[in-house]
Amino acid sequence: MQRSAIGLIVILAFSILVAPLTAEAQQARQVRRIGFLQAVQNENTTAFVQALHDLGYVDGQNVLIETRIYGAMLDQLPTLANELVTLQCDVILAAAPYAIRAAMSATSTIPIIGIDLESDPVQSGWARSLSHPGGNLTGFFLDLPELGGKQIQLLMEAVPGLSRVGVLWDSTIGDVQFSATEAAARAAGVTLRSLAIQRVEEVKNAFDRAAREDLHGVVILSSPLINAQRAQITSLALQMRLPTISLFTLFPRSGGLMAYGPNLPDMFKRAGTYIDKIVKGAKVSDLPIERPSKFDFVVNVKTAQALGLTIPPTLLFQADEVLR
């Protein structure tokens, strides 16, 4: 009887010790659900998934990545965002302003990581401040005035005598970005012409206008619409002998003259680290909104030659990549 009592005590003690460990193991094995609103699947998607993998999250094992690709179907975004909320995702990664707006409208409680090249999160009312967002959104946003100033400077260095420049931009989402570029052009003493578009059909008209006004170059702002039309845009720019600079490095690889902008795969990798922090208990309201830390400068020398330009050696020296 005494031995039985001792055995029972040992079993109870062991159970008390093991119970927390079992709970922790169950927690560790818990499958997390991550929502992902993205326009297209590309190298940024790959970088994001790889970043999660490097942090120990494997899709289909300890995490489920619920990807919703919206493409040009912007009217479907509210439905897609609500799907992710209905699935009770632990966190949602929303790429581009359209996706962020849809996610913010769908939930005020699920943490949202935003990646946005066009908006000011504080001015847009999405966050109280960069250092302490205070709501359910944080993420990675450009410093638009700084970027606009740098792009104008680089275009002036590449195009001698540049004084009239056009800005191709998507007026459905690009007001803040356009205003920053406009201010940068004014500060540099350059006359700026707006080449606003909202639909694919308007791209050709925008370049016709640039040719009629005898512009010396075009700054190409960012939007999913513009990025998707890069082949048409770079082709038109070459036909009309217009030097261009974009923040998408895919533009010079498609025949544009230059690009200076954030390393987008790096931003998506950083998003993976934020998701890891949230899954481990960090409050989204306390995670500061970050500016990108890596920027790429790409020059297409072949395009420069086709435009009759000689890129100064000092400019080529600054380039992270020179395409010949």
Can you describe this structure?
- The structure is a single chain.
- The protein has 324 residues and is an alpha/beta fold.
- The chain has 2 domains: 142 residues, Rossmann fold; 147 residues, Rossmann fold (3-Layer(aba) Sandwich), CATH 3.40.50.
- The strands form 2 sheets. A 7-stranded mixed β-sheet has the order 7-6-8-9-10-11-12, sandwiched between helices. Strands 2-1-3-4-5 form a 5-stranded parallel β-sheet, sandwiched between helices.
- Helix 2 runs parallel beside helix 11, helix 3 packs across helix 4 and helix 5 crosses helix 6.
- The longest helix is centred in the first third of the chain and has 28 residues.
- The N and C termini lie far apart (89 Å).
- About 6% of the residues have low confidence.
Mean of pLDDT? 90
Profile the largest sheet.
Answer: 7 strands, mixed
Q: Please tell me how large the radius of gyration is.
A: 25 Å
Determine the CATH topology of the largest domain.
Rossmann fold
Which features does this protein show?
seven-stranded mixed sheet, 12 strands, single chain, 324 residues, 2 domains, elongated, 13 helices, alpha/beta, five-stranded parallel sheet, Rossmann fold, 45% helix
Short précis:
By secondary structure, the protein is an alpha/beta fold. The chain has helices spanning 2-29, 43-54, 77-86, 97-106, 144-158, 175-187, 203-212, 224-228, 230-239, 250-253, 264-279, 301-306, 313-318; strands spanning 32-38, 63-69, 91-95, 112-116, 137-141, 164-170, 191-197, 217-220, 244-246, 258-262, 295-300, 321-323.
Task: Provide the fold topology.
Elements: H1 2-29, E1 32-38, H2 43-54, E2 63-69, H3 77-86, E3 91-95, H4 97-106, E4 112-116, E5 137-141, H5 144-158, E6 164-170, H6 175-187, E7 191-197, H7 203-212, E8 217-220, H8 224-228, H9 230-239, E9 244-246, H10 250-253, E10 258-262, H11 264-279, E11 295-300, H12 301-306, H13 313-318, E12 321-323
Parallel strand pairs: 1-2, 1-3, 3-4, 4-5, 6-7, 6-8, 8-9, 9-10, 11-12
Antiparallel strand pairs: 10-11
Helix pairs in contact: 2-11, 3-4, 5-6
